[in-house]
Amino acid sequence: MPSRTAPLPRPALITALAGLILLGALVHESARADTRGPVREDLSSRQQDLAEAADGVVDPDAGQFTDRLIVRYRNGSPGNRRSVLSASQPTHDALYRQGLTVRRVHRGGLGAQVMTLDGLRPVSELRAVAQRLMADDPSVLYAEPDRRVFVAMTPDDPMYSQQWHYFDTVGGIRLPAAWDLATGAGVVVAVIDTGVRPHADLADNLLSGYDFVTSASMGHDGDGRDADALDPGDGCSSGHSSWHGTHVAGTIAALTNNGVGVAGVAYGAKILPVRALGCGGGYNSDIADAIAWASGGSVSGVPDNTTPARVLNLSLGGSGACSTTLQSAIDGARSRGSVVVVAAGNSNAPAGGFNPANCRGTITVAATGPGGAKAPYSNYGGVVDVAAPGGNLARGAAAGILSTLNDGGVTPGNDIYQAYQGTSMATPHVAGVAAQMLSRNASLTPDEVEALIKGTARGFPQTCSGCGTGVVNAERAVKAVFVGAAQASDVTEVEPNQTLATAQAISSFPARVLGTVGSTTDVDHYRVDLAPGATVTARLIPNALSNYDLALRNPAGLVRASSARGVGLPDQVTWRNANAVTTSFYLRVTRISGSTGVNGSYTLEVDVQ
């Protein structure tokens, strides 16, 4: 059980527990993102494809548009000396070749010219245009898109300023910009834990859950399973209850912008409390039933869940291999569309020795401290997928994870806020981000959510060996959710499509292709016919155990854009048809490693604008 200092009854700098959270901690690792490089054209071999790998999946400007370019001409050049503001002739010519026209120009305070174009264009496209301008016009000192920025939400919750783990640019998850896009609205997140207390800063986001603790003595509530998921306390003999589930639930979905207490990662989501831990922990059989029920499965003797959860948070764990019972429950939850997020563990040991961190199909989360380094207690290793802030109380109470709690000992007391540390605290950050992503696109599969979270994670600012692909980045993860995919029509792959000549045509957009790599030699092609000036964006999301790459070729078979990343990481390409006629381009999916046949599934999202 976690220890903690005496609670504070009012908002203030919270004194926190001085020990590791023992209830939740486990881990799961995957390959880090491959080295990225710029896209180059006219390449025709697999080796060249890898050499030209694009910035791939997670373009920070994805979904962003502007109608302006900033161009700074060199001192003494005709463009810089012009008394009448206008683009130089080489600039005009270069823009015209890209299908762009300058409508007006004004000069910025730093001497650059700001050119307004004839319409909004993707920022990623205008980055490429700017590069062409600098290449085609020697008088251009630099050129870049005039990006637009927007207000990033800052909650009015008085203790938000103490939640560094949300907003700090070094150790935080960069949450405020994600809030501008998604809050988790419409998504149910199950907290499979000790139950919850109806904290005033949480109660309005709580659904009716269930108590799966079969042992009356462990349950500390006088009976076995029942429909009451409230936490009666788990400090039965010690007199020091953890109120662990309440703390986890607050990180996910504490009420936000209510002028009270703290904020939650996915404050628009609803929490489904599912009690599976009591005095002395919990049994795998109870946890497995809780997983099944929370995700919409049937459990004998228990009424069906009328509010199935799309995200399951398991901030719990123990040593040993993943049991068949637990793995079967996780597999069933995933088959019903639920994302399973678990803690890596707090033993500063390889997470492969702890369950459910070592179970297949989970997103296993390690913990970092305020500086972004591995927290001293966090488990690590090959089963870890990603890291998130878990706090480091060795650096003081302010370095912990602040959330909702209760001040009771054996039985419930009063609502408080308190800082804890542990991979139990890191896990709900990732669960909350998953809820944000699903609120933006409910059609995402568990594999797609995992791939996007891992693919958008930012590099560790300090050493965090064995902590997965990086620190979860809420802003990039939410932005990476494919725009329009929620309305996309599903397309099933049709073989044979091994060559350009047999490529499967995609004609309705946006499209979501459900494909399979049938064998180690299977290569899949899809044809997209682009009108002059049209832009295609495609994202390939592999299954979690595979590395599949994506390339776009022209009718001659020459590579125009490609992306080559690691196992379980998504790839993305974007290309604009600069030709004066409609042209066929071909998307190619290639297996590098991993699953084939019935386990070789992937999703290819395609949109044309």
What does this entry show, briefly?
The chain is an alpha/beta fold and 609 residues long. The chain has helices at 46-51, 78-81, 89-97, 123-136, 164-167, 176-179, 216-219, 244-253, 284-294, 324-335, 423-440, 446-456, 474-480, and strands spanning 65-73, 102-107, 113-122, 140-145, 188-193, 210-211, 270-275, 311-314, 318-319, 339-343, 354-355, 362-368, 386-389, 401-406, 415-420, 489-492, 504-505, 511-516, 523-530, 535-542, 547-553, 559-563, 571-576, 583-593, 601-608.
Structural commentary:
By secondary structure, the chain is α/β, with parallel strands linked by helices. The protein contains 13 helices and 25 strands. The strands form six sheets. It has a seven-stranded parallel sheet with strand order 6-7-5-8-10-12-13, with helices on both faces. It has a five-stranded mixed sheet with strand order 16-18-25-20-23, covered by helices on one side. A hairpin with a 5-residue loop joins strand 2 and strand 3 (113-122). The longest helix is centred in the last third of the chain and has 18 residues, at 423-440. The radius of gyration is 26 Å and the shape is globular. It starts with 45 loop residues before the first helix and ends with a strand. Mean pLDDT is 85; it is low at 1-59.
